Amino acid sequence: GAVVSQHPSRVICKSGTSVKIECRSLDFQATTMFWYRQFPKQSLMLMATSNEGSKATYEQGVEKDKFLINHASLTLSTLTVTSAHPEDSSFYICSARPRQSSYNSPLHFGNGTRLTVT
Amino acid sequence: TQLLEQSPQFLSIQEGENLTVYCNSSSVFSSLQWYRQEPGEGPVLLVTVVTGGEVKKLKRLTFQFGDARKDSSLHITAAQPGDTGLYLCARGATNKLIFGTGTLLAVQP
User: Fold this and answer.
1) Which tens digits make up the pLDDT trace of A21-77?
2) How far is CA A68 from the centre of its chain?
3) How far apart (Å, rounded) are the C-alpha atoms in residues B103 and B72?
4) Which end of chain A has fewer CB atoms at under 10 Å, N or C?
5) Which residue of B has its CA nearest to A104?
6) Are B55 and B34 spatial neighbours (Cβ–Cβ below 8 Å)?
C-alpha cells in the first residue's frame, strides 16, 4: 500500500530555534500534501495545503511566515516551524494525495511528529 | 473551521458493550470517510461511504451514511480493548480533507 514517511518522529527544541519536518511519499507521487496539527485528545486541524511547484495554501489563522512549507518535488514536502515557542508544541501530521486521485479519495498519512518546545 | 460535529466527544465503556458514534453536519456532502487513530500515529482509513442510506460493515463495525448525506454513524458491537482510539469522520472539501471533532473511545478490559 501507499506509504508516507514523516521525519523526525519526535523533536525537542529550544524556544527561538527553527525545526524542519519532512514528509515523503515512498512509493507514489503526490502533487498535493497536507499538513495538520493536533493537540492532545483533539481532532486534526488542517494548517495548509502544499502543492508541488507552487506556493502553499494556508488555512485561516495559520501564519505562513511562521510555518514555512516547501514542496519541491512530487515525493517531498517540508514544514519548518520558525522561531518556535512553547505554544507551538504539538503533534504535526502530514498526508499525501496520490496523483490522479480525486479530492474525495482517501489520504495517506504519516505517523506524525511530536514537537516539544522548551 | 470544523464543519463536522461528532458525538460523544469522549466515551469509556467496558469490554463487550455496544456503542454508536455520530457525525453530523448542516451541509450535504458527496462522501464521508471514517478513520481511527491510535496515540502517536497517523489516522488509518476504515471506510468511505458515498451513497445516501448506505451501510457498510467491517467486522464488528457498522457504518451508515444518512439518507440526506448530512450525517453518518459508526456502531461497534461487542467492543474490545483493541478498539480503543480516536475515531474521526472526515469529508472532502474542494481540494482538502476536513476532519470532524473526534470521538475518543476507551474500552476497559
Assistant:
1) 999 999 889 888 999 999 988 999 999 999 888 889 999 999 999 999 998 889 999
2) 10
3) 13
4) N
5) B92
6) no
Nearest to B100 by CA among A91, A98, A33, A46: A46
Residue of B21, B28, B97 to mutate, testing the A interface (most A Cβ within 10 Å of its Cβ):
B97
Q: Does A41 touch chain B (CB under 8 A)?
A: yes
pLDDT tens across A83-93, in order? 999 999 999 99
CA distance B3 to A118: 33
User: B13 has which bridge partners?
Assistant: B107
Distance of CA A51 to the CA centre of its chain: 12
Q: Under DSSP, is residue A14 helix (H, G, I), strand (E, B) or coil?
A: coil
The C-alpha cell that represents B33 in the structure block: 470517510
DSSP β-ladder status, B61-65 and B71-76 = antiparallel
